[in-house]
Structures are given as C-alpha cells and as structure tokens.
Amino acid sequence: MHQEAQFRFLLLLLFLSTATSSADAAVSSTSGRAMSLPGCPDKCGDVSIPYPFGIGDRCAAAGLSRFFNLTCDGSRSPPVPMLGDPGAQADVIDFSPERGELRLYAGLSYACYASSATSPSTNATFAFSLVGTPFRVSPSRNRLTVVGCSALGLVVGTASGGGGDDDDLYATGCFTYCAELNAAGADGAPCAGAGCCQVPISPDIPYLGAAFRTGNWTNTAWRFNPCFYAMVAEDGWYSFRRRDLVGVLAYYNETVDAGRGVPVVIDWAVRDGWCPATAEERARRKYACVSGNSYCVNSSNGMGYTCNCSRGYEGNPYLAGDELKKATNNFSDDQVIGCGGHGTVYRGTLDDLREVAIKRSKAAVDGRGGGGCEDEFVNEIIVLSQINHRHVVRLLGCCLEVHVPMLVYEFVPNGTLFDLLQGGTAARRRPVSLGLRLKIAAQSAEALAYLHSSASRAILHGDVKSLNILLDGALDAKVADFGASVLRSAMGEGESFIEYVQGTLGYLDPESFVSRHLTDKSDVYSFGVVLAELATRRKAVYDDDDASCSGHGGQKRSLSTAFLAALRHGELWSVLDRELVRRPDDDGDGDDKAAVDVVRELAELAARCLGPSGDERPAMKEVAERLQVLRRRAEMRAVAGAGRDSNGGEVDRSWIMCGGGGGAVGRGHLDTNTTASYQSTETDKMPLTLSVNDLAR
Q1: Comparing C-alpha atoms, which of 243, 225, 3 is closest to residue 107?
Q2: Contact at 8 Å (CB) between 620 and 452?
Q3: 409 with 423: CB under 8 angstroms?
Q4: Is the pLDDT of residue 652 over 70?
Q5: How many other C-beta atoms can be found within 10 angstroms of the C-beta atom of residue 415?
Q6: What is the C-alpha to C-alpha distance for residues 359 and 368, in angstroms, rounded to an integer?
Q7: According to DSSP H, which parts of 29-166 are helical?
Q8: pLDDT of residue 61
C-alpha cells in the first residue's frame, strides 16, 4: 500500500540585528523577546511570538497574514503554536531571530519489507510543499538522513512542485548497507553508511521530499531490519542507535506517533525580488523594512530579502517607530500618565482602538543620550520575559533604538495604589474599604512571592512602592517597573551586590543601603512600608500635620519610623487612617471587634516586615499567606453589635491609644488567651522587639 503525506505549511521569522553593546547583547542572548504588536499575545505556551508573526489575522503582518498567522492550540499543556492551513499544520519549536530561522516539527518517510522482495510491503513518503510561500528548507542547517541496512534513500525536489516536463528535477541521496545487525555502526557512530548515511541538500528547492529507490537486488536485511527511514532533519539532531533498525515501524512510532516529529530548520525571506534599489521601487513593492533604522539583506536561499537593524540599533526592523508616535499624539503632555526617574509613561491608542501604555526614555528626550537608561530598559525586558503572573504587568513590545528607547505595556486603567490612597485633597479622597486594601496587599504580595520563589529564575524587584502597584478595571493589583530588578538563580546566591543603590526615599531597606547587597528581604522591607501606607493612608515620607500624639507637627517624617515608634509607644491610633478605626469617643457605636483585630494584625505584620535586620523579617511567601488569611477574615466578619465583642463586651482599644511620654508599653489581645507586647527602644535605630504568642496563626 502506497501512502503519500504531503505537508503544506507557512512560516516566517523575525530577523533581528546582532548586538553591538553590552545592553544589546543582553537582549540578543535571549532569543524571541517580546516583539509582537502592542496589544497582541506575545507568547503561546513557552514559545515567544515575534511580529510579523501573530496569533490571529489582526496581529500578523498586514497584507501577509496568511503566511504569518499562527494558531495557538490551547488543548495541549502547555499550549503549542501551529502554522499552516487547517489540516496541514506544523508545531513550532522556537524562533531564532539572530539566525533568521525558525524550527518546527515535521514527519519522515519509511519503507517496510515482509520478505526479500524488491518492493516494500508498506511505505509512506513525507514531502515539504513550499511553492508560493516565502519559505525554504535551510540547506546549511539540515541534512538528508537515511537509516537502514540495505537502503538507497533520496531527497527529491522540483522548482514548482508540479512535476511537469518543464519542471527542473533535483535529486541526491546515499546508500546504507550492513549484512547483519552487529555489522552496523555502534551507537553514536557517524552516519557513514553502516546502518545510516547523511548528505547535504541544495538551496532554493520549494518542493522537497524524502523517498527510497528500489532496485533489482534482493533485500537480505529484512529479517533483522524490516523498515528503512529517510528524513530531512536538523543537522546534528539524529544520533544513530542499532535499535532504530529493529522492529516494524518501531523508530517511526517512537519519533512521530509517541513524540512530535523530526525538527527541521526553515529559512524565510520576502519573495518579491531582491532588495529594491530605489525609493520608487520600495514604494511600489511594499518594502518590508519599514523601520527608519533598518536595511535590506539579500537572501542566500532563493530570490528574496530580509531586514536587519542598522548598526547601533536593536529592535524589530519590520515595525515602524511612527506607530507609537501616532498612538500618543506625538507624545503629547496630555497623554502622560506617569513619570519616573528614567522614563515618562504615556497612554496610547493604536489604530485598532486598543489602549497601551508606552514608557519613553526621559534621558533621550532631554538630549542626554540613552546611557544607563537603555540599560534599565533592557534589564526590564530581560526580567519581564521570565514572568507570567496575573498580578504582574505584561510587557507587549519594545523599541530599543539607542536615542529613544521605548517599552510598550498593557494599559492598566485605574492608576496606581499611590493615586488611590493619596489622590485629591484629604477632604475629597474616595473611601477605601479595609477589604479593598487587603485585596490589593494580598495580590501584590502574591506577585512578589512568585518573583522570589516561583519564577524560572528568582527575581528581586528592587523598587517596591505604592507607585509601582497598578490597579486594573476591577481594582486588582499588578506589580510594575522592573528597571531596578535583579535576576538570580532560585537555588543559587541569596543576595546580589549592587554597584549603586536604586530605589525611592522612604522605601529603601537601611540594611541593603549600607551593605549594598540586595536580597529578597529588601523587597520585604519596602513592602512593609506599603502595608503601613495602606494602614495609615500616609505617604512614605509625609508632612506631620497631626501633633496630637507625636509632638512633631509640621515636620517631614519617615512613615516607617513613625509607624514603628507609634507601635512601641502604644500610640498606633495616632497614625492609623481614621476610616479604618475611629476614635473611641467619636459619634456612633465605634468599630466592630473583628475589624479592629484585622487592622491590628495588619499593623503587626507591617512591623515584622520593617524589622531592622533581614533575618528578622518574614519571607514574602509567608507575608502573602498571612494577608490572604486577613483578607478572608475581613470579608467574613459579621459581629453583632458594632463596637462590642462577640460576648457583648466593649472592644479594648488600649493598644491604639496615645501613651504618656516615651517608653510606654502598649498591649492588645490577639484572642482571649494571647497578649502582644511592644518593647520601646530608641526610635532612630528602629529596633522592635515583638513578644507575641501565636502571631502567625
């Protein structure tokens, strides 16, 4: 029985320049970085999707979407990108932008014998049909490999695939022979004819298939080697094993049926001619190198060309930088939604009405060159490419031109946690419930715990603050701004030395500032300041306009220092947000005990995070777990009689009342049998001794 499996597929590869600086090298060393259109999926499973590829017509290259459109098969785990027409699709392994190549899984040909007859009893032929597409099988990166003991394997091709009289025929092949199984090469031996052989293939053959040539000779090997195999496969992939000769279709079943097939390397080029020589020709032919900092390179595998970035630039030569300029109304000040030390963030709207956030280098705009800013942008790309978490902002694309580096993110519509807590005047600020504060805290801690222990490589954020926690349409948290982040092995070093301290005044870990060693506990300290912000609704560095307890009215104060001092002196009420816990003499019934307990434990958790030594601080995973417990308790609280405990007694507020002078010891009940004490010490040194039984319950 003769079966022919013709395989039609459509492939494309983004072709990027090699790096010319240390920052560029960092990007180039991680092929397939997020280079998709803004607002489009940049990954399918574990495979990055670079433009002009795209998942769906609108995300693929305009006018070429049939060739670049991918399907993401979500029925498999992890999902797998597929290209080609329905019913004849190929699984993509990866993209290699530096080489201008793409790898995919393909099939193989076989012929099986049940006797010494000259014709096989069963066979199948696998062929590549690339006629009319921009793709060719790479001649330098693939080989014809034939496996068997009496096999003449061929790779046969034609220029058009039609097979007519005027169609140029191409054929090459090799012969294998071994009189018995023990005469075949040893496992791992070169494919030189004893059990397997290999030959190169020629360039620019759009229709290519692997087959066998039968002759008049008697096949004496059929008893120990019933099946022969021929395949066009990536050079270096196949390693000979004697067991591949044994059994009926055993190797085929192991490779194709049980696995995913044979890896093949494909070249791509724009196939409408060589590089256009004039501007008129470029306009007429819809020139693909649309970036103003790119140039054309003629293909070495058939007529066509690819695009490369100009020297000193890195990015996607198939994308025009003007798109981001248009999306932001020429980077209008009206579109600014955030400013940082290294970049200005603009709100942008693309042609298809998708909204994005575009971070543009501040140093470049000011005419001071890219400098360290480009390094920061590259660092952010490297870090974000390791992360896939619902509470971390997603990077959609980038433009790392030396003069104006830009990053494109998903747009997160409700601003930052800082905006939520501090926006507007004190009298006009929107109410923020305890439940919402705990939700934002728990989600942010979950993201940071993921960075520290669950990402492919452990990540230290390095600049945790309320301005770097974004809020989406449902007021869910998304951690952002990874320019100061550090990658380290999750099982390797526990800390990273930093040449200069990055971060924000009021959030910096004093221990890391002195030692210049960034650890996961540095992030914990900064997050402790965020928890204090949530509990007090005060800035990390604030104007003290309430001298009722502190005696420091009108001064700039550190929230972390004031927060810890208030705990030690039994004066926590003096810094807490009155919306969470009212004065005991306010009008009304006062606070329900469940809410008071939750706020107290939130304050205690913040104090632990703000411990003077990293060894005294909890891990971020513990912080996240504790916040989830507090969040559930806040959601479920239903205490009858506001202002009274479950037994009808008054809620004890002595733990939040103003103390008399320095050194007072406040106390509070975690439950009916547990007492917490705070030992006062000198405020400036910030040590805090907690003696709490069952604090982490």
Answers
A1: 3
A2: yes
A3: no
A4: no
A5: 14
A6: 17
A7: 65-68
A8: 75
Instruction: Please list, in sequence order, all residues whose beta carbon lies within 8 angstroms of the beta carbon of residue 386, skipping any fewer than 6 positions away.
Output: 455, 456, 457, 459, 487
* Of the listed ranges 48-57, 202-211, 458-467, 666-675, the one predicted with least confidence: 666-675
3-state secondary structure of 421: helix
Sequence-distant (≥ 6) Cβ neighbours of residue 42 within 8 angstroms = 34, 35, 36, 48, 49, 394, 395, 396, 397
pLDDT at 321: 65
Cβ(421)–Cβ(436) below 8 Å: no
Residue 279 to residue 596: CA distance in whole angstroms: 72
| Separation between Cα atoms, residue 574 and residue 640, nearest integer Å | 27
Q: How far apart are CA 31 and CA 151, in angstroms?
A: 39
Q: Tokens at residue 610, please?
A: 């703000």
Residue pair 642/590 in contact by the 8 Å Cβ criterion: yes
Which sequence spans correspond to the domains of the chain? 10-98+272-286+301-309, 107-268, 322-410, 417-487+505-692
For domain 322-410, give the fold: Phosphorylase Kinase; domain 1 (3.30.200)
User: 3-state DSSP call for residue 149?
Assistant: coil
Cα gap 499→158, rounded to integer Å? 60
Residue 403 has pLDDT above 70, yes or no: no
Whole-number Å distance between alpha carbons of 104 and 18: 23
Residue 670 has pLDDT above 60, yes or no: no
Q: Give the H/E segment covering residue 25.
A: helix 22-28
**What average pLDDT does the chain have?**
76
Pairwise CA distance, residues 197 & 173, whole Å: 9
- Amino acid identity, residue 206? P
The length of the chain is 697
- Helix, strand or coil, per DSSP, at residue 233: strand
Q: State the CB neighbour count (10 A cutoff) for residue 323.
A: 17
Given the candidates 3.20.110.10, 1.10.510.10, 1.20.1260.10, 2.40.40.10, the CATH classification of the domain at 417-487+505-692 is 1.10.510.10
Q: Which residues pair with 91 in a beta bridge?
A: 82
Q: Which of 368, 678, 421 is nearest to 542 (CA)?
A: 421
Phi-psi region of 141 (alpha: psi -120 to 50; beta: other; left: phi over 0): alpha
Q: Across the beta sheet with 101-106, what order do the strands follow?
A: 54-55, 69-73, 80-83, 90-96, 101-106, 262-268, 135-137
Cα of first residue to Cα of last residue in the chain, in angstroms, is 71
Phi-psi region of 646 (alpha: psi -120 to 50; beta: other; left: phi over 0): alpha
Q: Check for a shared fold between 322-410 and 417-487+505-692.
A: no
The three-class DSSP label of residue 147 is: strand
Number of C-beta neighbours around residue 15 at 10 A: 26
Task: Output the DSSP codes for 547-580.
Answer: HHHHS-TTSEEEHHHHHHHHHHTT-GGGTS-TTT
Residue 397 has pLDDT above 80, yes or no: no
d(CA 209, CA 207): 7
190, 251 in Cβ contact below 8 A? no
CB 104 within 8 A of CB 98: no
Residue set of the binding site for ATP: 359
Confidence at residue 230, expressed as pLDDT on a 0 to 100 scale: 94
State the Cα–Cα distance between residues 537 and 241, nearest whole angstrom: 69
pLDDT at 406: 82
Which residues contribute to the annotated binding site? 359
Sorting pLDDT into bands at 50, 70 and 90, what band is 9? very low
Q: Cα–Cα distance between 602 and 439 in angstroms, integer?
A: 12
How far apart CA 450 and CA 627 sit, in angstroms, is 15
| The two three-digit tokens of residue 89, written as one number | 């699709």
- pLDDT tens per residue, range 119-171: 788 889 888 888 877 788 999 999 999 999 988 999 888 865 555 544 567 78
Q: Phi first, then psi: what are they for 365, rounded to 5°?
A: -65, -35
| Positions marked active-site | 463
The token pair at 539 is 């800035």
